[in-house]
User: Fold Glycosyl transferase family 1 domain-containing protein from Flavobacterium sediminis.
Amino acid sequence: MEVISMTKKIKIAFVTASDPLDKKSWSGIYYQMYQNLKNNVEKVDCIGPIPLFFIKAMAVTNRLTKLIFRKGYNYKNSILLSYIHSKYIQLKLRGKHYDYIFAPAASTEIAFLNTDIPIIYCSDSSFGQMNEYYDTYSNLFEFSVKESNIIEQKAIEKAAYITYPSNWAKNYVVNHYNSKAKIAVLPFGANIDERYVHFEPKQISKYETVNILFLGVDWYRKGGDLVYDTFLRLLEAEYDIHLTVCGCIPPVKHDKMKVIPFLNKNKESDLKELAAIFKNSHFLFLPSKAECFGIVFCEASAYGVPSISRNTGG
Assistant:
């Protein structure tokens, strides 16, 4: 793959429908990508966020179709939404000069985008690979599956360069979508500011409590039921362990389990609390049933915390 030099003066349009300055957007991936580009090129402009009033109406429609027909509509990858996004982005780009458009997880935003600016499309997977793998993309109307694949195909065709964080994602696109783009595997990293990271290899002693961490917003997809069952079995075997659940509210309770429902990375106090959680954990136990890449494993590694998971996805 041709290497894009970041030493010269480069101007980039950072295209996303959500706000890349919000650390909650895509688990902070947008924010970290934006900051790193900003530190390495002359100029990075955020082309977004895009107003969400239309997508909110489509979300309501999706809930109704699931309730009535037991089928879902992948409105986030719809042709209508893609067309609306493209028109908004073209207005924002009008009269401005950029060397590249960087479009992370933005297939819907770029599929119908009319521009001569080279597009760098970055994603952790593709719709075809997600279909019937993630619950969100399962049991969809047939027309919605076709529509979503059209969006993905058009986005891939529009791109001059494409990057994925894993061979799992890259190989699927190479084998299932037509592309003339240069495709590379570039793994993601931890979405935590370096000043909050303290790498400390973990040591386990039989004289102290072993702290197990479950960190995820989706209890079932991330394998929370298996984590809790394992936790109970270890307690029955008289191991001295403690479980911390962070990011969601599990459907179970236990005296030796601490629940932290949500931490907002936009708040310094929450970032410090997250750093303390990693520092005091011996293992990250996250046996995900479906996972595109798993930024949380990068974050755990940044603190010297080993991860236990399933061999699935990327």
